[in-house]
Specification:
The protein has three helices and seven strands; from the N terminus they run βαβαββββαβ. By secondary structure, the protein is an alpha+beta fold. It has a five-stranded mixed barrel.
């Protein structure tokens, strides 16, 4: 069974990346007015085929090659580095963990609740027990189901760029 969560693993640990302070100019909390936006990563092309998060989760292999656009709401964001977020089509909807390449960019710690547009692709991979434990204990991630050995088979969305919009 594939777990519906999204987390990508870089070739180095987040602890190494943060080197003392986990804050940087990209993940620092922001104070936006309703309707204001911030952009992280590559600019969105606005040419990628649009799909829903649920559609991508239902058939991730179909959306694993090429670039696709998704939009919705941020359910939660990594509280260690801002190196991933969980998003759903709408509040209460099925969600996916969104990663940003090999820590190519970060989002503000206080991004939960913002609207988001992203471009990228769906990825299916097995996360090690150690990575799963780290994501849960250090970053606040949630997984629907762990395999017997503590690993997780995860479908995630690897974004090349995002636009976050503050809601009311």
């Amino acid at each position: 069974m594939i777990l519906v969560s999204v987390f990508a693993v870089a070739g180095f640990s987040q602890t190494e990346l943060s080197a003392g302070s986990d804050r940087n100019e990209q993940n620092a909390p922001v104070d936006l007015k309703p309707g204001e936006t911030i952009t992280r990563g590559e600019a969105l092309s606005n040419k990628a085929p649009k799909i829903s998060v649920e559609k991508g989760l239902d058939d991730p292999a179909e959306y694993s090659e090429g670039t696709f656009a998704v939009e919705g709401v941020i359910v939660r964001a990594c509280q260690k580095l801002g190196c991933w977020m969980e998003m759903a089509d709408k509040v209460g909807g099925k969600s996916v963990r969104v990663t940003f390449g090999s820590h190519a960019f970060f989002i503000p710690f206080n991004s939960a609740g913002m609207k988001v547009k992203a471009e990228g692709r769906f990825v299916t991979k097995t996360l090690s027990k150690e990575t799963v434990d780290h994501l849960i204990n250090d970053d606040g991630a949630k997984f629907d189901k762990r395999n017997e050995d503590g690993t997780v088979t995860e479908v995630s969305f690897d974004a090349t760029g995002v636009v976050l919009t503050k809601t009311d």
